[in-house]
Specification:
The complex is a heterodimer of chains A (121) and B (110). Helix content of chain A is 0%, strand content 50%. Chain A is an all-beta fold and 121 residues long. In chain B, the strands form two sheets. In chain B, strands 1, 3, 4, 7, 8 and 9 form a six-stranded mixed beta sheet that branches. Chain B has a three-stranded antiparallel beta sheet with strand order 2-6-5, with no helix packed on it. The chains are: A mainly beta (121), B mainly beta (110). Chains A and B meet through strand 5 and strand 10 of A and strand 3, strand 7 and strand 8 of B.
C-alpha cells in the first residue's frame, strides 16, 4: 500500500524557515518524480514544486522561486522542501504527491495526508 | 486567479448528470493531458480522471472525462450524495514549466 507521510509543519514567524519532509513507503521511491502542492485556508490547490526521479531536474512556482528548495533522499525514501523567508501567504496545508512518471510529469496518483504550515507572528 | 478556469459551483439532484468545465490555453490544456482530482473537505485530493478520460481503478464508471482543444470537462452521471466534493482540473503548462490547477468546483447534490 502506497503511503506518503508528511511532517515538519507548524507555526513559524514571518521571515522564518522550515523544512517539510514526506516519507514514502509501498513503492520504489527512486523510480518516480515527486511534487509539493499546497492549499491555503478556504482556497484551491496550488502547485509549489516538482522534482524528477533522478533529482536532477527541479521546478518551482513563481510564488516560491528563490525561497523554496525541493530535494529528495532516495536512501531514506524521503522528499523535502526547505522553505526560507516565509510569508503570511505561505500559510497552507502542504501535500506531497507522487507522479507516475520519472523525468516527465503525467499526473499525481497518490497524495500525502497534508502538513499544515502557519506563518504568523 | 487560477490559470485554468472552472465554475466555482455545480449542483444536481440524485440521478441527474452534471458536467464541470475546465478552460485553459494552448500551453496547458491545449498541448497536454488533463487530470481531475476529487477532494472531500478536510481530506487529501484523490485522482479521479487522468490523461483526459482515463479512470483509475476504483473510480465508478459514472465519472467520465473529455477534452477538446483548450477545454476539458468532467461528467458525472447518476449523481449520488457521495459525489459531493470539490473537483479540480490540472495540466502541465509548457510556458510556466509547472503544473497549473483550476480554481475548483464545489459539487452539491441537492
Amino acid at each position: 500500500e502506497v503511503q506518503l507521510l508528511g511532517s515538519g509543519g507548524g507555526l513559524i514567524q514571518p521571515g522564518g524557515s522550515l523544512r517539510l519532509s514526506c516519507t514514502a513507503s509501498g513503492f520504489t521511491f527512486s523510480d518516480y518524480a515527486m511534487s509539493w502542492v499546497r492549499q491555503s485556508p478556504g482556497k484551491g490547490l496550488e502547485w509549489v514544486s516538482s522534482i524528477s526521479g533522478s533529482g536532477g531536474s527541479t521546478y518551482y512556482a513563481d510564488s516560491v522561486k528563490g525561497r523554496f528548495t525541493i530535494s529528495r533522499d532516495d536512501s531514506k525514501n524521503t522528499l523535502y522542501v526547505q522553505m526560507i523567508g516565509l510569508r503570511a501567504e505561505d500559510t497552507a496545508v502542504y501535500y506531497c504527491a507522487k507522479d507516475i512518471g520519472y523525468s516527465t510529469f503525467y499526473y499525481f496518483d497518490f497524495w500525502g495526508q497534508g502538513t499544515p504550515v502557519t506563518v504568523s507572528s | 486567479q487560477s490559470v485554468l478556469t472552472q465554475p466555482p459551483s455545480a449542483s444536481g439532484t440524485p440521478g441527474q448528470r452534471v458536467t464541470i468545465s475546465c478552460s485553459g490555453s494552448s500551453s496547458n490544456v491545449g498541448g497536454n493531458t488533463v487530470n481531475w482530482y476529487q477532494q472531500v473537505p478536510g481530506r487529501a485530493p484523490k485522482l479521479f480522471i487522468h490523461t483526459n478520460n482515463q479512470r483509475p481503478s476504483g473510480v465508478p464508471d459514472r465519472f467520465s472525462g473529455s477534452k477538446s482543444g483548450t477545454s476539458a470537462s468532467l461528467g458525472i452521471s447518476g449523481l449520488q450524495s457521495e459525489d459531493e466534493a470539490d473537483y479540480y482540473c490540472a495540466a502541465w503548462d509548457d510556458s510556466l514549466n509547472g503544473w497549473v490547477f483550476g480554481g475548483g468546483t464545489k459539487l452539491t447534490v441537492l
